[in-house]
Amino acid sequence: MAARDYGQYSGISRAVELIGERWALLIVRDLLVAPRRYGELAAGLPRIPSNILAARLKELQAAGVIRRAPRSRVIVYELTPYGRELEPVVLALGAWGFKAMGEARDEQVITPASMIMDLRSAFQPAVALELPATAYAARLGDAELFIRVNGSALDVSGGEGPVDIAFATGPAIHRLISGELAPRHAIETGQVEVLRGRGELLGRFASTFHLAA
């Protein structure tokens, strides 16, 4: 993958050469959630041109970051063990970028994969250890997530299951996570709608998932 070459013998410069092209790290982010078919990757990155997606996939394969694999008669893209080593890097970048997000623009979307990784970045395992196991259903724009917290273990996925609280919101989720929006005020002002369950558990959610803005 030699699309960019900084001419420096350095680990950081080499890392940027491998994953620094536009869209490459977002492809890695989405594959950290689960292996995906080409069409699923395209759907999760709605603004990526098809020729750029194809080029980035080819480059990431050449770099040993991802690979093509057969799954139930279809081909999916998945991270290699080398590529999966990027998970703590991506989570740290998510926490760092959270500080500069600002207000959401009208054209910006929340995808299931992006929200799953944001929640992983915001998860506070030390706090969760002191709280009872809790299951949340969160409808975040078009993303519907099932979130299970049991001690320091976190599982976030699409799908359904028994939950302690289900709620719906949008970009306000980031203000809730940052602490700028108090859970009770979020409910009272309609920025978060409790669909079922105990509304006070939104406070537990905000304690369990927190990043300072």
How is this structure best summarized?
43% of the residues lie in helices and 20% in strands. The protein is an alpha+beta fold and 213 residues long.
Characterize the structure shown.
Keywords: DNA-binding, Transcription, Transcription regulation. Pfam families: HxlR (PF01638). This is Transcriptional regulator, HxlR family. Helices cover 43% and strands 20% of the residues. It is an alpha+beta fold and 213 residues long. The chain has two domains: 11-99, Winged helix-like DNA-binding domain superfamily/Winged helix DNA-binding domain (Arc Repressor Mutant, subunit A), CATH 1.10.10; 112-208, Nonspecific Lipid-transfer Protein, Chain A (2-Layer Sandwich). It has a five-stranded mixed β-sheet. Strands 1-2 form a two-stranded antiparallel sheet. A hairpin with a 2-residue loop joins strand 1 (66-71) and strand 2. It starts with 10 loop residues before the first helix and ends in a 5-residue tail after the last helix. The model has no long low-confidence stretch (mean pLDDT 94).
Top keywords for this entry?
213 residues, alpha+beta, Arc Repressor Mutant, subunit A, Nonspecific Lipid-transfer Protein, Chain A, five-stranded mixed β-sheet, two-stranded antiparallel ribbon, 11 helices
